[in-house]
Structures are given as C-alpha cells and as structure tokens.
Amino acid sequence: MAAATSINTIDPRDIGTPDDWIPRHSEMVRLTGKHPFNAESPLSLLMDQGFITPVPLHYVRNHGPVPKLHWDIHRLVVDGLVSNPLNLSMNDLENLPYKEFPVTLVCAGNRRKEQNMIKQSIGFNWGPAATSCAIWKGVPLNYILKLAGVNLNDCVNGPRYVCFSGVDKLPNGFYGTSIPLEWSLNDVNDVILAYEMNGERLTPDHGYPLRVIIPGCIGGRMVKWLSKITISNKESDSYYHYHDNRVLPPEFDAERATKEKAWYNPNYIINYLNINSVITSPAHNEYIPLSSFFNNQMYTLKGYAYTGGGHKITRVEVSLDNGKTWLLSKLDQPELVHPAVLKRRINPIPRYWCWSFWSLIIPFHSFIRCEEISVRAWDSTQNTQPRNPTWNVMGMMNNCHFRVKVNTIPQGNEFRLVFEHPTQPGNNPGGWMVKPSPKLITSKPSDVSTINSQIPTFTINEVAKHNNEKDCWIIINKKVYNCTKFLKKHPGGTASILINAGKDATNEFTAIHSTKAIELLKGFYIGNLALLQSKL
Ligand code: MTE
C-alpha cells in the first residue's frame, strides 16, 4: 500500500494560484489543470487504501479558490424562518452533542468522462474515482435547528427548505444549495455539520473549518466552508443550486436549457445518489501472459459499489459474455462491522451510507474468448444499473454497466491479455471509449508550411509579457490567443483566465470547454508558438 497519509509540501502546480498555501498529494490526478483544484486519486491507489480513504487521497471538487478561514474567528449564522437566530463559534459547535461515522461521498459527475466520449457535456472529465470514504464527525443538523426553534410543525403551512451557504465567492455568487427541512430534521438521515474528518480537523480542501455532510446524497449538496444556514419557504437562491447537479433530458443542450428554464424544473434536480459499481481489478492496461493459462491459475476480479438514500447494496454481478449470463460476486461490506457504526446502529430501519467491495475468483481460462468483463450492482429496492449510458448536458450520474475490454496482444513470441477500461481520468490518454479529440485540440501547431507563411510566431517569453487584465494572452495547443477583450465576458469569471495569462493554458482549457467555446476561441487567435522554429 502506498504511503499516502501525510503530506506537507506545496505542489509546484499550485505556485502562482490562490491555493499556493495548501499541501496536496502529488499523485492526485488534476482534472481542470492547475486551478481550481478538482482531483481524484488514481483508481488502483484509491482501492489499495481499503474502506477508509486517507484525507490526501480523498477526491476534491472545488468550484474556485479555497477560502482561508480560521477556527477562532469563523462563525455559523442560522437565520430566516427561525424563532431563535443563532450565531455560533467553532468552539460552541465543538461543545455540542456529536455523531461520528463513515460516509462515502460521491460527486454526481463520477464517471463523467464516459459520457464526454459520447458527446462533450459542459462538465470536466471525472474518471471512476470521484468517490471516497471517510469518517466524519460533527453536530447533528437537527440539533442546531431545534436550538434555532425550528420544528416539523413549520412544514404544515407549506414547504420549508434548509439553505446552506459557503464562504467561497465564485463568478456567479456564493456556492450554496438547499435540502427540504423534513430531511434535515429526521434523525435517521444523519445530516451533520462536520468539523472532523478521519479523526482530525477538516483540511482546507474539504471545507475547514465546517461543512455539511448529508449521507446517501450527492456530494454537491454538502456545502464546504459553511457560514450560513437560512430556513426559507423557497429553495436556495444560489446560482449553483440551479445550474449544477441536475440531470436534464438528453435532448437538452445548455442553450435550450437556459431558454426553456429547464435548470429550474424541480423534476431534474439530483439529491440521492444512484446505484453504481466499477471494476478496479483488472486495472487499465494490466496484462496477463497467455502462458499463465496452463498453470490452473485463478484471477480475482474486484471493484466497488454504492447506492443512495441509505439503501443497501444487496448483490453485485459480473458478466464475461457481454451480459448474456451473470455470475454472483462475493460482497464485502466493511460498514456493517465498522466500530463507529456498531456503536451507533440503533435505527429500527438501518441506513447504509458507505461503499461496498465486491470480488469474484475465476480461473484464468475464463478469459478465453471473453471480449469484455462487465459489472452491475443491485440494491435493497431491487434497483440495478442500465447497460447503456444516458448522455445529459451536465454529464451527471453516469451509472451504466462498467465494461472492461479484454484484448489479445502479441508480445515477442507470445500473446498476452491486456485489459482496457472505458476511459482514463482528465486528459489522460487511453480507454476503449476514447475517440480522437475535436479538430482544434488535435490539430498540430503550424509546421514548416506555416512558418514560411505570414502567420506570426511568438516565443514563450514574448507571450509571458502579456500577463495582465489590460493585455492578456494565453497559449492553447501551441497556438497563441489574445483574450483581453473577452476577459469580462468569460462565463467562468475574469480570474480564471487571468490565472493563466501569459502562460500555457491547454490543460485548463481542454478540461472544461465545449465545442462552442472552441469555436469562440478561434476569434482570438493571433499566431503560433515559435517552438518549432528552433527545431528547424
Ligand atoms: N461547497 C462549496 N462551498 N464549494 C464547492 O465548490 N463543491 C461541492 C461540495 N461542496 C463545493 C462545495 C461538490 S460539487 C462536491 S462533489 C463536494 O463538495 C466535494 O467534497 P470534497 O471536495 O470534500 O470531496
């Protein structure tokens, strides 16, 4: 198992970004370039850690820079439709009753890259490791709400919502979202305001000093850097409550969604996690020499599974014949025997908040004539995963059968079986679903013919001088763009371009931009990087 539990160095990629004070694990795969930090652990490394993920390897989803907050001065305000507004310090919160238990967090974009390979969504390329499990400790939200004088009777006259606000101010306002009051008040739902993760205070990336944990729910509702809770008869008014974490019908693109106000259609909101499972062994590019087949050897297929709403994973099945027949795997559910859970399992109807692990031992020869290995999980509502993905404009909730291709490849005098996952996270190459990227991204920079033409070329040093609000150039795929006029119009805010001003922004750009943005970019093209000239 890789040593992963302690980190104290600043990653060079964070230097020059607003997050240059946060130590981060160097092996985390960055999905939106240098900044903001959106990252998942390599899948095999994540699995090596077992049930509880060490904090530095827990996936991170930050919409913007991490706020610098201090335990001693941070406050939580509770206001709105309450009879007793609260203004609590972190010490106040730490002295209240608490719950401590493991919860698996999942970003609703987990496995989005598979959808992006069908058609680019407006989201970046999560692989299958946008999920992790930690032990969270915090004050029950229902306890705080009762202190504020809120109770179930308040719902009699119409719906009530608990609106959470973070301190991170983003281009479209503060990050915030809401859940129904009934959900928050019901003790079996275990909603907590967490200040500890795996026995220590939260780290900046995971919401220090205070965040919401809503077990069984998508990560997007679990507001980090929590500073305010407002009880309202309306859902959160944060831009991010409506324009994030929605599954729109496949025929909607972003323009149509905005035109028809689909973002505000309550039918499209995502709260509970959906059922999902993934194959982690064999890993991508793992191989077996065919000679091993003669030794009666066995292979252990492995993976994870999770579901939402407190339901239980009841079985996981594997197919080696393209879904014609299914083999029952062995299910390992560490949550059921975890000391923190055994201590508190008092609910008459138990809730399950954590991932399970499945394994299946098969003889090597089962791979003969096997084209692909696929997996599907079932839960206590008899729900299972669909075979095919359903593309949606945000690329969310992808939970189709996870399919690993089995390729026979010649190697010297013999053949080996090489396993291929559907995708690899971020811009990492590989995966059977991966098609060539859009023209602009793959197109080579100007070659000899371009150099002889009239198109200007610029050296890296020249580009680097254009690094401010009044004069902002960036490099994408070895082409130079003057974005000064676009700065104020950028939907992601001026800062997200400025952070790359004068620099190579290829990773940042390709991670999140749609084909429409690629077209728009062409209007700002001013020349090529002079890299090739020196090679001539
Ligand atoms: N809270 C704030 N204030 N800002 C954010 O960007 N991201 C959300 C949620 N809470 C976010 C936030 C999303 S989309 C997810 S999936 C989870 O935080 C991720 O939590 P983690 O980074 O601790 O894994």
From TrEMBL:
Its EC number is 1.7.1.3. Keywords: Heme, Iron, Metal-binding, Molybdenum, Oxidoreductase. GO terms for molecular function: heme binding; molybdenum ion binding; molybdopterin cofactor binding; nitrate reductase (NADPH) activity; sulfite oxidase activity. The keyword Heme applies. This is Nitrate reductase [NADPH]. It catalyses: nitrite + NADP(+) + H2O = nitrate + NADPH + H(+). Pfam families: Cyt-b5 (PF00173), Mo-co_dimer (PF03404), Oxidored_molyb (PF00174). Homodimer. Transmembrane segments: none annotated. The keyword Heme applies. It is an enzyme of class 1 (oxidoreductase). GO terms for biological process: oxoacid metabolic process; sulfur compound metabolic process. It comes from the Eukaryota. SMART domains: Cyt-b5. Residues 455-530 form the Cytochrome b5 heme-binding domain. Its cofactor is Mo-molybdopterin.
